[in-house]
Recover the amino acids of this structure.
């Protein structure tokens, strides 16, 4: 019968750690691919945006509005960013309860008998011995793997930089 210590050593903890790490690596690659696909969709999807509205208040108090012509811009250009995630924590928890029991039961039954008659006598002793030995083993185990996923900002180069070039003449020129 294996010892309790051997039972604990037989738990494939290195295999569990390796499988958890590979699972996280594969999941991270899938998450990154999904974020890149989302960024591509956001960059390719364009919507018309009016970039400027001018409000003019006349001397008589009337208000009028003029707007610039709509310009097609991507969803990425208007500020929609894909969400990126990363695994920040992983925990493996293994619990084992090992219970072994041994019991021994011995039963002894002794009977004696004597007979006498006509100058003869006889005696007998009868003994019955039985041994019972019982072994029991109970193993309960649970394992739990927990990972924590957190959003992270998109790469800085992914966010478009807004550069404004104003070629209007300065006032008074």
């Amino acid at each position: 019968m294996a010892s309790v210590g051997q039972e604990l050593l037989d738990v494939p903890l290195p295999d569990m750690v390796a499988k958890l790490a590979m699972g996280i690596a594969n999941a991270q690659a899938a998450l990154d691919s999904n974020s890149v696909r989302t960024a591509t969709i956001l960059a390719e999807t364009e919507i018309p945006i009016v970039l400027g509205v001018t409000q003019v208040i006349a001397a008589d108090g009337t208000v009028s509005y003029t707007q610039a012509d709509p310009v097609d811009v991507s969803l990425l250009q208007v500020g929609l960013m894909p969400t990126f995630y990363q695994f920040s924590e992983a925990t493996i928890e293994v619990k084992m309860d090992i219970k072994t029991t041994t019991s021994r039961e011995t039963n002894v039954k002794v009977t004696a008998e004597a007979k006498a008659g006509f100058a003869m006598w006889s005696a007998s002793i009868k003994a019955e011995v039985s041994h019972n030995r019982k072994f029991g083993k109970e193993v309960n185990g649970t394992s739990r793997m927990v990972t924590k996923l957190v959003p992270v900002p998109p790469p800085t180069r992914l966010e478009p930089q807004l550069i404004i070039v104003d070629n209007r003449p300065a006032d008074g020129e």
